[in-house]
């Protein structure tokens, strides 16, 4: 079976971005393998089990995160963020193990929490940019590629950031 | 930032009567008040700047701050710790740009003035062109005149006057002892911090760290999520308590009712280890969840330090340093760390992306804009005011949802801003 092409990789990542931008988070959860990890490191070369990360979610944590976002009224997402995920510089790297693939790309996320309150409810209505380099470690399960790890290295990962309660 | 009226001095900023305790909105929104408190509060208190485990070896240093004053915390060649203002005595450039490192000297990039890591001037290029003895008079980087350590926590004080660290802590000291007694050797090391930014005044997080009343509202979605997934191990019982102290310190005590089931064995093991070390009775006192405010901006939380750093009147940073206990097995530390890093407990995860603390920051943003938009507001802290009990130990005791720690904070804040000892005019 053919390995992952750059066009396949783009299709995969674009779809993930669309699910996030449309807040279809239950479908987003299904992109991951059972042992998949969603990881935003807070520094370079840190062991995520032993040092803080911005986010280091296994399946249960990820499911809780989505549950709180969609079903329990997470205050920091009331109103929820609107996002546009823009992906570029997509590369596919050779991997040694069969049925695995590694996608590298860059990501620019434009985010705002809507609400026009005549400028009195900062930071509502205030748009910001998050930039990062992404790595998707994929694993093939039957005919489907699943995310074994999504890692986003934000350029401001080791600086104080406000409110990352939406999915990057 | 919106324009607000400058109100710096009048006695109405913090008002206390038998039935009222309230704080003027400008205390949170007024830039001039902020500038004054950076000097009167932060330079006249013992301020946490670093932990000794971050600078274990001679030459180690890290940058930090006392209010808005940037400092370098150094360990000199003789092992002594110095807290140095990170500003060249010549033309005022910052001499150190690294967050941490190891250096015997700091060299100003502007004209090459070079300082030893104890702050003394080592070299001034072309020194003969300066007036005679002038360089000797300058001496070196400005050093905090008083530096004291307790359990590895390094505190600096920029004023020569006032109480030493032990007197400053007073009756609080015994609770700091209990907090550190989670390590059988009463020592620990800190990990790299979580960092979060929020658009609100620094005092909003300080107040919140000992607020026992907000969780069921602000954290409702987190609690419901925890219950939905069965990851909360709640036991009925004690509802907690609050303590207030002289010099602005406070405590919120809570039961450890939310230890995730998968780390319960590590917590049971820690408790057994402490019982061996201290005995049953003392362990019962130690093994309580205490959220401690050390005035003005430092907290001992559940297996982490929390430092609130003021940036502007309406911008602040939170640093949270998970701690690792000395004298316990690695897997116990892993359990404690897991509780801090990953679990959906009240202390979970980072304030920027966690399930819990991110909602506090959302509320701080709402308070900041609320107070900016209605500067006539008085912020109310009267909950439990009529029930404060003074204990013989020199502290005040309230119920778990009382606003007692917040009142202690603002009594000290008022004293430093315009109370006794500051009657000789502005300290700006």
What features would you describe in this structure?
The complex is a heterodimer of chains A (168) and B (428). With 168 residues, chain A is of the alpha+beta class. Chain A contains 3 helices and 6 strands, in the order H-H-E-E-H-E-E-E-E. In chain A, strand 3 and strand 4 form a beta hairpin. The radius of gyration of chain A is 16 Å and the shape is globular. Chain B has 428 residues and is of the alpha+beta class. In chain B, 28% of the residues lie in helices and 26% in strands. Chain B has 13 helices and 23 strands. In chain B, strands 13, 14, 15, 16, 17, 18, 19, 20, 22 and 23 form a 10-stranded antiparallel beta sheet that branches. A 4-stranded antiparallel beta sheet of chain B has the order 6-5-4-7, with no helix packed on it. Chain B is globular, with a radius of gyration of 22 Å. The N terminus and C terminus of chain B are likely disordered. At the A-B interface, strand 2 and helix 3 of A face strand 14, helix 8, strand 20, helix 11 and helix 12 of B.
Could you spell the SSE succession of chain A in H and E letters?
HHEEHEEEE
Distance between the termini of chain B: 22 Å
| Shape, per Cα inertia axes of chain A | globular
Task: Please state the structural category of chain A.
Answer: alpha+beta
From the alpha carbons, calculate the radius of gyration of chain B and give it in angstroms: 22 Å
What radius of gyration of chain A results from the CA coordinates? Answer: 16 Å
What gross morphology of chain B would you assign? globular
Largest sheet of chain A: 6 strands, mixed
How many distinct beta strands of chain A?
6
Strand content of chain B: 25-35%
Low-confidence segments of chain A, given as residue ranges, are none
Alpha plus pi helix count of chain A? 3
Major beta-sheet overview of chain B: 10 strands, antiparallel
Low-confidence stretches of chain B: 1-10, 420-428
Mean pLDDT of chain A: 95
Please tally the β strands of chain B and state the result: 23
Distance between the termini of chain A: 31 Å
The chain pair with the largest interface is:
A-B, 37 and 42 residues
Helical amount of chain B: 25-40%
Average pLDDT of chain B, to the nearest integer?
A: 90
Q: Report helical residue fraction of chain A.
A: 10-25%
